[in-house]
């Protein structure tokens, strides 16, 4: 076709592709290319045109975790269930970007996130997200939606759970049961999910004495001796945050058991979220349920809105309270 029109192959591609780059092409040249296409019976390849337009009905999923959440026991797995169902209902396929899963650090490498451009847009999961690579993608207009509140990039769309209100409700439940000294155990970082839970914890105290303990290595810092010291100081209830590893909750439970205490008879335990499914238990834990599948579906809806040229507002989902069996009145208070 290029030979028939007397132009380069690049010029042919520009004309037949609609010249989205805005390169100046003489009208006579454009007409020669179109006439050559008609003469040769040229029919555009639909697949090639979708690729040229960067629209191929593919949604990406990128996880900033050490293990990609395809194991049903992983806390992110229900999100993926919701994502898959909603994507299928809307006619999209999924591309799972697993390159960050060999330790998490590779997501920070220069250009590591650029591969998400293979998809039309991408969903992001993870507590710790590299801001600058995301800022560049957002500035380029690439559609992104983060699952979880993210305010550091104003243009980044997100859907999240209302951890503030849910955490406050859990603490108010403990206060209503008679607890007057409560300790929150959380990871020592500034992930929005952690700061939201701490904010809710403080709001729920409503004048009751509370303390926040930040731990870097829960298994080493939350010891039986630490639990006994807290109990001797009058603490009757411990609250832990849920994370994708469940490290704080695991360590707290092990320390309480090793200290010779039982919940809820000797001490009350509550979790700002749900326990890891692999942990044994005597019954449901006091806490709240995160609507993970629903949030995954909401993230897909937000991403398809972006692809359609709309600007979705933040979604903040309610987390229903779970009374559980791990908490009760403090020792000595009638049940």
Automatic annotation (TrEMBL):
Q: Where is this region: Disordered?
A: 314-335
Q: Does the keyword field hold DNA-binding?
A: yes
> Is DNA-binding a UniProt keyword of this protein?
yes
Q: Which Pfam families match?
A: LacI, Peripla_BP_3
What domain of life?
Bacteria
Organism listed in the record: Streptomyces mimosae
Q: Which SUPFAM superfamilies match?
A: lambda repressor-like DNA-binding domains, Periplasmic binding protein-like I
Recorded hits in InterPro entries, A to Z, give: HTH_LacI (IPR000843), LacI/GalR-like_sensor (IPR046335), Lambda_DNA-bd_dom_sf (IPR010982), Peripla_BP_I (IPR028082)
| Protein name as catalogued | LacI family DNA-binding transcriptional regulator
- Which CDD domains does this entry report, sorted A to Z? HTH_LacI, PBP1_LacI_sugar_binding-like
- Can you give the residue ranges of the HTH lacI-type domain? 1-53
Q: Name one GO molecular function term.
A: DNA-binding transcription factor activity
Name the keywords, alphabetized.
DNA-binding, Repressor, Transcription, Transcription regulation
């Amino acid at each position: 076709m290029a030979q028939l029109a007397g132009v380069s192959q690049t010029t042919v591609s520009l004309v037949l592709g609609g010249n989205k780059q805005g390169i100046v092409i003489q009208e006579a040249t454009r007409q020669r290319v179109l006439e050559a296409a008609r003469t040769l019976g040229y029919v555009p390849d639909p697949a090639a045109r979708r690729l040229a337009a960067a629209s191929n009905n593919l949604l990406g999923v990128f996880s900033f975790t050490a293990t990609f959440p395809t194991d049903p026991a992983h806390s992110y797995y229900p999100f993926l269930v919701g994502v898959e169902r909603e994507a299928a209902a809307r006619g999209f396929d999924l591309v799972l970007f697993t390159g960050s899963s060999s330790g998490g650090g590779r997501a920070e490498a220069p250009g590591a996130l650029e591969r998400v451009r293979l998809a039309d847009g991408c969903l992001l999961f993870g507590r710790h997200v590299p801001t600058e690579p995301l800022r560049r993608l957002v500035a380029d207009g690439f559609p992104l939606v983060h699952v979880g509140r993210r305010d550091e990039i104003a243009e980044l769309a997100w859907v999240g759970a209302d951890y503030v209100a849910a955490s406050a409700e859990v603490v108010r439940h403990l206060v209503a049961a008679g607890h007057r000294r409560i300790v929150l155990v959380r990871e020592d970082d500034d992930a929005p999910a952690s700061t939201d839970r701490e904010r809710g914890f403080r709001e729920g105290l409503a004048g009751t004495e509370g303390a926040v303990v930040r731990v870097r290595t829960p298994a080493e810092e939350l010891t039986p001796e630490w639990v006994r010291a807290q109990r001797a100081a009058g603490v009757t209830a411990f609250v832990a945050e849920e994370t994708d590893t469940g490290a704080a909750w695991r360590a707290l439970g092990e320390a309480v058991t090793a200290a010779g205490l039982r919940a809820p008879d000797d001490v009350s335990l509550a979790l700002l979220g749900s326990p890891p499914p692999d942990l044994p238990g005597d019954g449901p834990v006091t806490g709240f349920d995160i609507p993970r599948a629903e949030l995954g579906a909401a993230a897909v809806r937000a991403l398809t809105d972006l692809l359609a040229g709309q600007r979705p507002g933040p979604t903040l989902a309610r987390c229903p309270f779970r009374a559980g069996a791990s908490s009760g009145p403090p020792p000595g208070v009638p049940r």
